[in-house]
Automatic annotation (TrEMBL):
Protein name according to UniProt: Casein kinase II subunit beta
GO annotation (BP), single: regulation of transcription by RNA polymerase III
UniProt xrefs under Pfam families: CK_II_beta (PF01214)
Keywords per UniProt: Kinase, Transferase
Record family assignment: Belongs to the casein kinase 2 subunit beta family.
Species of provenance: Naematelia encephala
GO molecular function, a single term: protein kinase regulator activity
Composition skew (Acidic residues), residue ranges: 9-18, 317-336
Lineage summary: Eukaryota, Fungi, Dikarya, Basidiomycota, Agaricomycotina
Length: 358
């Protein structure tokens, strides 16, 4: 035992361990430190070769103050000996963060950047969609603008096609321009197997089952007993995604009865969440989303009969009033005109009767 204790306290081994720890801390670059900060887990590590290429930095010099000092900080280059010209370190750090964010926007749309982000996406580093009927579909960070200072980062869900705010306040300081509005669409065009199909194939356990004999579905297990992002399918459209869409739509009910869309508390714009049940139904509508003449279809999954009838008539929006309401309004106007004409006639008769009495 004493020999083991002496071996554990060997000064040579202690020096080696100290040297190894010092080398690990010395290899920590500014990019590693920046991406490890709280709220920066959406970022990927941009390759230094990409930053050192002047072509990739075109147009950024006029947007970033203290360009030279910020670039040196990002690349871990020692500053010049003349320290009198170097401004406050906090100002240089903010410029370096802005520079890295703008470079990050350009890097993630390249082949190497997309490969880095797809690993984080598949591992769920960006979180899941807060919508209940999306069943924890993985989301992707995106921005509403390419210029900094306009909006913060948002999360895009490929199943419902909407964007959401991050669940934590630690992402409130992350600018959306560091991801841009090009990254999310380009990401799913590059990896179509991660995108949901444009049609919804309800399973046998759903309320409106349909035959799925022509679909080859292979279930993929997921944690929690739920399907994350839909099952893997063979989509006839190679550019439409290879994951089955989770097309359930929430229908508000009062004591078991559906709330009409005409009610004040009724559902609004429900057609945005609806998907057709079969891929063949996509050819049955025109470019405006209306059913073609002489074609029949079952409509989108989760819709009631009234909505399907309105779709077949070609009225997807409620901008125009119903013809019955127009007829009622015309009848009311005619009655009002008749009453006005009767009153005018009576006034004329009254004025002509006065001279007759004289």
């Amino acid at each position: 035992m004493s020999g083991l204790a002496e071996r554990d306290l060997d000064p040579e081994e202690i020096e080696e361990d100290a040297f190894a720890s010092s080398t690990q801390t010395s290899t920590l670059t500014w990019i590693n430190w920046f991406t490890s900060l709280p709220g920066h887990d959406y970022f990927c590590e941009v390759h230094e070769d990409f930053i050192e290429d002047d072509f990739n930095l075109t147009g950024l010099q006029s947007m970033v103050p203290f360009w030279k000092e910020a670039l040196e900080m990002v690349l871990d280059v020692e500053p010049e000996e003349d320290s009198s010209k170097i401004p406050d370190v906090s100002i240089v750090e903010s410029s370096a963060e802005l520079l890295y964010g703008l470079v990050h926007q350009r890097f993630i749309v390249t082949k190497a950047g997309l490969a880095s982000m797809v690993e984080k996406y598949e591992q769920g580093h960006f979180g899941a969609c807060p919508r209940v009927f999306c069943h924890s579909t993985h989301v992707l960070p995106c921005g509403r603008a390419d210029m900094p200072g306009i909006d913060t980062v948002k999360l895009y869900c490929p199943n419902c096609g909407d964007i959401y705010s991050p669940p934590s306040s630690k992402y409130a300081s992350v600018d959306g321009a560091f991801f841009g509005n090009t990254f999310a669409p380009l990401f799913f065009q590059t990896y179509p197997e991660l995108l949901s199909a444009p049609f919804y194939a309800p399973t046998a356990s759903s309320s409106t089952p349909t035959p799925t004999t022509d679909r080859r579905i292979s279930p993929s297990p997921s944690p929690g007993g739920q399907t994350v992002g839909g099952e893997t399918i063979t989509n006839p459209n190679p550019h439409g995604g290879q994951k089955a869409a989770l097309g359930r739509v929430y229908v508000p009910r009062i004591y078991g009865f559906k709330v009409s869309e005409r009610a004040r508390s009724g559902p609004r714009m429900k057609w945005l969440r609806e998907r057709p049940e079969r891929a063949e139904e996509l050819d049955l509508v025109d470019h405006k989303g209306r059913w073609k003449d002489g074609s029949t279809g079952n409509g989108a999954a989760g819709t009631d009969d009234e909505v399907v009838k309105e779709i077949k008539k070609g009225s997807l929006f409620d901008d125009e009033d119903e013809p019955e309401d127009d007829e009622e309004e015309e009848e009311e106007e005619e009655e009002a005109q008749q009453t006005v004409s009767h009153s005018e006639v009576s006034q004329v008769k009254g004025t002509t009767a006065v001279p007759g009495r004289r």
